[in-house]
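Appendix B. Raw example, untouched.
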Amino acid sequence: MKGAVKGAVKLASGGHATVWLAKDREGNRVARKCPHPHLLEDPDVRFALHREAEIAMRLHHRNVVQLRGVELVDDAPVLVLDYVEGANLAELVRDWRRSDRPATARAVVRIILDGAAGLHALHELRDERGDPLALVHRDVSPQNVLVGVDGVARISDFGLAKCLATDRATTEGVLKGKAGYLAPEYVRGEAGDRRQDVFSLAVVAWEALAQERLFRGDNDAQTLERILTLPIPSLATARPELNAAPLDAVLARALARHPGDRFATAEEFAEALSTAAKSVGLLGTEDDVRGCFTAERRALLEAHARALALPTRGPPRRRVVVALSLAAIVAAGAGVSFRAYRSTRVSPASAPVSRSAAAPPRAQESTPGEAPALAPAASAQGEPQTRDVAPSPSVDAPKRSAGPRARPVSSSAPLRPRQNPY
């Protein structure tokens, strides 16, 4: 597999990429996000990689997964990210359910506050001229909230992030993201802004506290319909032991179906949630987050570390540093150039890049080690997946208009899972 290196540990594989735990040249643990080879000629996939890399290179915040650089391996772009030792929030919720251990509400509140801080940093990002980029994540979900054993939660996966000023068109009539976390205005095909992410994060918060899905239907069409029509249940119904009335009030506003009735920013949402949680003793700390990992999850993380430390056979593949622009790196190998949003550029000096090469004759790649995985959760709810969701005629969701500046990029395709690689 492109991007895999000797001694790496496979962490996860999704619809677009596989993520490996590996070591960099200094011996630090990193996560290598490697696109599936058969997708590299897909302009949408390469554009998503370009978008994720360019945003991550600009965005430096403790609550955002940091991009260290981009490598070329056999002419395929590989994102090298900070390794977050821990689990995503979806995995933690499954752990809690499987162990019959109720979610620590204090830990959940702290995780959501961290996620809101990361999103606010994304929303406030500016270009080199100081102009707002008006970015929206568009795929806020439990899978994209990475929770570290250090007690800090981080937002990840910016491949679907949308720049409202200049953005490639989504396929006409196709919604991007996980169906259960889409904002109502997006489902209806209306213009939106950062308040879409506020809604999505509020869904994540409600579900993590209640330990059940909020809008899940039997299929995507039913899920979308529930987003548009379902009254928001009280947390007291799912978790009567919680003194959740103040939290319910905050979540009800964040989950308002009209954007104008929501908090204007993720920061405002966080401030209100923090105040409400503090009033009932649920304002968690990093210690609460560190204590929310089950013994089974910690054992898996230790297995990853042991697997990474195992000796490998054969010499490592040579790496030669090359000076390429980030856009050129991501476009390499497919003959495709991408239009960066606004005039955004990432200088070669700010984007550490390397090209992996093996002297001919080309040696076969060894299969990286793979650590044991946790057994699937017993919950029937399962893990939501990122999809291109085609709205059903039964849902009042008109086709999205590309606008005068948009460019169509692909035709409608059947539903296909696009799991977050983490």
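End of appendix B.
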